[in-house]
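Lab notebook, bench 4. Still working through the backlog of constructs that have no structural model yet. Next entry is a single chain of 238 residues. Request: give me the structure tokens for it.
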Amino acid sequence: MLGIRSARAPRGLFGPRHAGHSVAEDGMGALSLPVGDDGVVIGDDAEGNPRIVGFHRSTPYDVLLIGGLWTAQVLALRAAGTGARVAVETGRAQAWTALAHAAGAGLECVTLHDVGRVPPMGATVGSPVVVVRDCGMRPPRGRVVSSPWQSVLTLLPYLSPVAPRLMRAATLVGVQRVSPQEAEQIGRILGLARAEYEALPTLADGVTLWCAGRERHWVMTSGTDAETGLLGAARRMD
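Model written out:
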């Protein structure tokens, strides 16, 4: 699957070989094994299953979110929680300062940069990077682009003249509540069914339609207690 995965399929490297273990058949019901996928949990789908985006990749990966700052900040926090360095390119640093201070508990795992001033981050498999571009309606073409182990998440508050280009270039596109006119245009660009794009103006805060190729996932992002304490409740508008 492209883009979004369920948290059910196991992944990883095989560990060292040990002698086998056994358990009586009547004890099997007491066993539980929490197995999940790698990546950032972005919320739950319509069936209540966790959905995951793997930002750490050996190939360039571009994500576009047409939505609210709250969702972008939750994704940034969760990416930092997976061990990524998060570089935020923004013209409103004051909106990110509290998050940057809280995220690393004294370590600079989330850094803030003026628009056009993100330095080379030196991403590697052992030190992946997520660049969050919060640059308004017309984000300039940045010199820092996606590359192996460096993903880029671009936030657009609404549809803008540059949105069609960004949507076509992105591997994964998330759309939150937009106007009916914007929804119809987004539907044409992404090839959405009529029922899908007509639902976009009615979405609740925290709900995103994530699209990767022909995949479609409706996902509800709910903040943890810590996230809500820092960022407040889910909201589309800022």
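Notes after review: The two ends are 33 Å apart (CA to CA). The first strand starts at residue 4 and ends at 6. Flag for follow-up if needed.
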